[in-house]
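pasting for the record
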Amino acid sequence: MTAIGPIPGIEANGASIPLVGLGTWDLRGRSCARVVEQALRLGYRHVDTAEMYDNEREVGEGIRASGVERNELFVTTKVWPSHFAPRALERAAHDSLMRLRLSEVDLLLLHWPNPQVPLAETLGALCKVKRDGLARHIGISNFTVALIEEALGIATEPLVCDQVECHPFLDQSKVIAACRRHGMAVVAYSPIARGNAKNDKLLARIGAAHNKTAAQICLRYLVQQNIVVIPRTSKLERLTENAALFDFTLSKEEMSEIAGLAHRDGRVVDWSYSGTTKWD
């Protein structure tokens, strides 16, 4: 398999985040460890997991098997909303590190909003976890514009990102603008809309012009806007494809055409812990 060139990163409130990472949702067991190991051997330096994925142990195994130095890696995990009470959050952070067999993660996120626990309490605990050295950076995930503003008003440590569903078929312009206003990164999960990109005629046509796949056009559209992408794959051959995004540029016209695919109903992951999230 072909090694990939260096992946550029972006700066966000003190964190340097590689623009392409490996998402591990739904990867399990030995195949998870194998994909993580292979991705890191190929040149990936950013891996994203969560306690809810039930694969932190395997992600840690893949990291160790790769032989890549820990200080070269950017490892993200997330705390599940049922652990948002302060003591539970601290315990969850310790448990994640124990499963990963790491002394700290690079980024610890709140996985989904939980209106049943006051955000001030949760963020207080998250900031303490950072001060205690369990996470180098902290952030949020699936937060709306209103919740981003609320969180920033409370947090005593910098929040470096909001990780959200983001791809050309979903209009996330309001969330992206809110993050940019505050120097936060946008990290896109499901960046190829769970595979839907490959069926899109416009993306395929633009891809043919660049000798790239529709999925690569989808990912390039995001990274060209300095949006971090964490595509998940269980196929080793896709790892190289998903990172081969920096040897071409989409024209202004192509970017504009792709932007035209966005609509409010393009969400493929419409789950909310509370069932009450009002998306922007």
